[in-house]
């Protein structure tokens, strides 16, 4: 799950393309990044704890 959250944040906080994000995570395919993004999006809607943790990580990165 941490890798998927990191991919999600990269997608939200950067202008990197899906292939570029995948490459930065060890040569993952762009479809892996899409799947991670969708999975985390779903978790954020369903799980308040994860939502708060991701929000906290995002805030730390934006400081």
From TrEMBL:
**Sorted alphabetically, which InterPro entries does this protein's record hold?**
Chromosome_initiator_DnaA_CS, DnaA_C, Trp_repressor/repl_initiator
Q: List each coiled-coil range.
A: 33-63
**BP GO annotations:** DNA replication initiation; regulation of DNA replication
Gene3D superfamilies referenced in this protein's UniProt entry, alphabetically = 1.10.1750.10
Q: Which GO terms describe its molecular function?
A: ATP binding; DNA replication origin binding
* Chromosomal replication initiator DnaA C-terminal domain location: 2-40
- What Pfam families does the record point to? Bac_DnaA_C (PF08299)
- Sorted UniProt keywords: Coiled coil
What CDD domains does this protein map onto? Bac_DnaA_C
Keyword presence, Coiled coil: yes
Q: Ligase as a keyword?
A: no
Task: Check the record and name the SUPFAM superfamilies matching this protein.
Answer: TrpR-like (SSF48295)
Q: Name one GO cellular component term.
A: plasma membrane
Q: What is this protein called?
A: Chromosomal replication initiator protein
Q: Which organism is it from?
A: Tetragenococcus muriaticus PMC-11-5
């Amino acid at each position: 799950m941490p890798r998927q959250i990191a991919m999600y944040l990269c997608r939200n906080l950067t202008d990197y393309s899906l292939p570029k994000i995948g490459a930065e995570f060890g040569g993952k395919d762009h479809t892996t990044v899409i799947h991670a993004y969708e999975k985390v999006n779903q978790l954020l809607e369903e799980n308040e704890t994860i939502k708060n943790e991701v929000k906290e990580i995002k805030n730390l990165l934006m400081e």
